[in-house]
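Much of the work behind modern protein science is quiet bookkeeping, done one molecule at a time. The protein below has been through that process, and both of its lines are reproduced in full.


***
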Amino acid sequence: MSEDPKMLAPQYRDLYSGYYAGAPTAMQRKREISAALSASCIARAIGDRKPLNLLDVGAGDGNVLAQLDARRLVPELYAVEISASGIEAIRARGLHLLREAQLFDGYKIPFPDKHFELAIAVHVLEHVEHERLFLREIRRVSRFAYIEVPLEHVLRIQRSIDSGKKFGHINFYTRETLNSLLDSSGFKVLGSEVVPSSLAYEQQLSGKVGGFLKNKVRTAALAAAPTIAPRLFVYNAYAYCDCQ
């Protein structure tokens, strides 16, 4: 895995350097709500398998780690993140189960082969310039992996592209393209699921009434037409994988 600093383009290095510093309260709340859903999905994905340690790759400011810490899902938590402001925020949380939080270059994970039983990347892959290099490094350091992304490759794809630019979204997925990417990176997908955002998340973005309606429409559409609905509306998807 290359450690060439040019692997991360300057515009993205600049974007992420202070990404988590002084975030507005509404943005912080949005991340917290999203992390709660992700933690529930992680718990559902691993089922009865209880890993002894977990690495959060691209851990952001630690919202998912905080949820996992509170749920005592894994005894030992570790984090790597490209943003110095993110690492500062993670360490400031004082998480009981956190053993280490390190800055990394986005591609070279500073741990030995198969050091972790589970690695997670939650809403990270859509930001990554070199997806397969990133995924192969996750596969190198872990035995199992949980990958979660937004399914933004919908009918109104240009809207997704335009709205995602300010957040650094440069990759857009369907469930099928996500699974194909994982397969071509050497993962064995053990299970995957498409899930709507929570009611709390939709209401945080669109208000009490608007959020309620959006949540009901998306949830009903997914139940009625699970293949068609993700072509029309944005959902989240996760895949639980054997790193072989």
